[in-house]
Amino acid sequence: MAKPLIIVESPTKIKTLKKYIGKDILGLKIVVHIRDLPVKNLGIDVDDNFKAQYVNIKDKSKIISNLKKTAGDTDEIFLAPDPDREGEAIAFHIMEILKKKDRKFHRVLIHELTKKGITEALSHPTQPDADKYDAQQARRKLDRLVGYQISPLLWQKVQRGLSAGRVQSVAVKIICDREREIRAFKPEEYWTITADLEAANPPVFNAALIKISGKKAKVTNGEQAHDIVADLEKARFIVLEIKNKTIKRNPLPPFITSKLQQDAINRLRFSAKKTMVVAQQLYEGIEIGSGGPEGLITYMRTDSTRIAPEAAQEALDLIRHSFGDAYALDAPRFFKNKNKAQDAHEAVRPTSVYNTPEKLKSFLSPDQFKLYDLIWKRFVASQMAQALIDQKSILIEATAKYLFSVSGSTTRFDGFMRLYETQEKKSETDIQSLPPVEPKEQLTTLKINHDQHFTKPPPRFSEASLVKELEKNGIGRPSTYASIIAVIQDKGYVDLINRYFTPSELGFIVNDLLVGAFPNLLDISFTAQMETNLDDVEQGKLNEVDLLKTFYSEFKNTLDNAKDNMVSVKGVGIETDIKCPLCGKPVNIKIGKNGHFLACTGYPECSFTSNYTRDEKGNIDIVEKIQASEPIKDCPECGKPMVLKEGKFGLFVACTGYPECKHTESVAQENSSKDTGVPCPEKGCNGTIVEKHSKRGKIFYGCSKYPDCTFATWDKPVNESCPECGSPYLLEKETKRDGKILKCPNRSCGFKKSILPVSEK
Ligand SMILES: [Zn+2]
Ligand SMILES: [Zn+2]
Ligand SMILES: [Zn+2]
Ligand SMILES: [Zn+2]
């Protein structure tokens, strides 16, 4: 009789398995996805219970025939792809292909690729899980129904090649909404007042004003701040109350997928995608010494913080041995799961705590080491003792009117923090050490400080905070966060600038069209509910076809409506509040071969078109057309005239003798001669302010001493001092409301005067 066959989907897994499986079970095969929906058409029969029209993937035909050959007449097959929905789908597809009379299939769920994990899994094989497969199918079909039907609509209305996706478009919406919040944000001025104080004993410390006449201190302008400072300079500072308490801090649970990604992004500067790639390597097995590869972490796609009792016990032994009894718990610490039903997995943890990062360092790539180190420390710390933090706060009275407060903390016992800090280090004022003081003690005032601040808009999303936001809103699952984040960047809807997401103009345009046409689909709670429905399918509580039917009947209506009613950005364009500078008619945003631009609605009578940019408030700025033919100077190399050109990286000056003469110059040099005559306001700089062009052709003003001095402003400085605050220069600004004005550059001053009447509308 033929030997049983084990089938897995990765070559590394094969090696790791070989190490532990005896001669009695042989034959390992690599199989990735062998069947999928067709590329060219929808591939789902919406009239016949959403049956999928699967096709064998072309390049896989050889694999399939090989697979059949290897299977031969074996009557027992163990299916061991990854233990999640995706792996279940692969298992089912293999089963479809290898189905034969009297052949038995088993599903093997290997949560860790170690001797114990493999033996355990093989001795308790299960049946392939039809509900789990249905859940994977349902997700695949939902995504297909949405993606394959909305994308062509976008091609027709906006631009060829665009795409929309069920969850991806919601992620883009979250980023667009945040950007609009930032644009609409109005910073409010506020002042903080602090005092540098000295007690009988050192050190000097800095206390903050928290209350005025019993109410929360709210200082909104400089005048008020000055008055308070004047008051305080005469006041005596007396210690009112001293509070001491000890805070017990618990370690965080071991990693689930989303938290692993967030920490790897924040602490290691990985991307979500890279985190998963490296984690997969650690899971599938790495050679650590002789005897073949070994899985170093448990399966990395999980939303469970559950840990095997033996693993916890092993951690306790290691902690007692390496850190001492004080750091070890009497009994393992277990963490509660938010979602009890999905508890098939464990948290992400090392398969053996005795594989310390130091011990493995020489066997791992630098990235593997960094991620393993993070996983190991987080897990071991989760079994360590609480940290004890002594907190001291002092309340100080300055006359009966003003109340100051200062607090400091010292670590009494570091506990788990010895291995893994939970929070980013706080700013220094939060952790300043305080002198011993007595109630009623009078303090010496060294200095009263007053500082101007402005409230800040909410921050843009980083990869880490976006994963957190998706998780918080119930959108996405351990297996999908990384791909959502990768796909929105690939599609050009958002850019990651300095590690923060900003929507592109195209992202805004497509987002607004989709939100308008598919309000439900783009709704966060609708999408979250859909994820819950998919979980219900996995648990057999909801029928896959019922889910698809309910979804599709509504979606189909909305889609048909959108076909008729969605604005064509190619044709009509999107309305703006800009008037055509040539004829005064409204100007619309359109999209053409070279991207977005403004076009006059008076076409064909008026043929005005222009590129545009947006300022930090989102207002449209028309980019002046460049007179490309106008010679600027003679070429220093061949004497032919040189002209302004626009290239991939912005404006530059090029010789008209091209291609014989390839001489070019950058624009910045070329325009740095236009001097405004205004001395640079930067302290100690003797440069003057000159007119410059940004890479995108927009005029700005910067110091002639650049790059030594980096002073720059969008508005034109004028050599006239501010009559109110004495600022040595004013800025020329043109706004729709006020026309052309001169404005003080000090935000706290607010002086402005009109220099031209408001143009008639
Ligand atoms: Zn016009
Ligand atoms: Zn030349
Ligand atoms: Zn300067
Ligand atoms: Zn001023």
Could you walk me through the main structural features you see in this protein, from its secondary elements to its overall organization?
With 761 residues, the chain is α+β, with helices and mostly antiparallel strands. It has 5 domains: 5-128, Rossmann fold (3-Layer(aba) Sandwich), CATH 3.40.50.140; 138-184 and 459-565, Topoisomerase I, domain 2; 189-250 and 387-454, Topoisomerase I, domain 3 (Distorted Sandwich); 257-381, Topoisomerase I, domain 4 (Orthogonal Bundle); 574-623, no CATH class. The chain is built from 18 helices and 36 strands. The strands form 10 sheets. Strands 9-10-16-15-12-17 form a 6-stranded antiparallel barrel. Strands 20-21-22-23-24 form a 5-stranded antiparallel sheet, with helices on one face. Strands 2-1-7-8 form a 4-stranded parallel sheet, with helices on both faces. The longest helix is centred in the N-terminal third of the chain and has 28 residues, at 130-157. It binds zinc ion (4 copies).
